[in-house]
Amino acid sequence: MRLRTVIFSVSLVLSVCLLPATASAKHKHRSGVMQCQRSVADRIRANHPASRGSSFDSHVQRNPHGNNAVTISGWGNVRTAKGKKRGLTYSCVYNLRSGALSKVKYKIR
Predict the structure, then answer these.
(1) For residue 31, what pLDDT is reported?
(2) What's the order of all strands across the beta sheet hosting 101-108?
(3) What is the pTM of this model?
(4) C-alpha–C-alpha distance, residues 64 and 66, integer Å
(5) Which of the two residues, 16 and 43, has the higher pLDDT score?
(6) Would you give the distance in Å from CA 26 to the centre of its chain?
(7) What phi and psi, each to the nearest 5 degrees, are found at residue 41?
(8) Please, what sign has the CA dihedral across residues 87, 92, 94, 100?
(9) How far apart are CA 11 and CA 16, in angstroms?
């Protein structure tokens, strides 16, 4: 009986200690996604000044990139100067420790 109590106590303490880390990681990923999409939109505006804006799909992929980074990628649309909607893909590497963004890429289809 005492062993069960100890095991339960240890598992409770571990779950409480790990909970903030998980929530923090989710927040960092969300922040990285927003930063990536904003950077892609800025580059599209700079490279295609006549475009009428861009939008991004809510489905985003996150894949590990080394020990402290994640590659963020997804899809979206850009509206051309003539109003036509064209698809786009994008990706960025987000450093989870520093919050720095690198390797920002996009391709308009």
Answers:
(1) 83
(2) 54-64, 69-79, 85-95, 101-108
(3) 0.73
(4) 6
(5) 43
(6) 9
(7) -60, -40
(8) negative
(9) 9
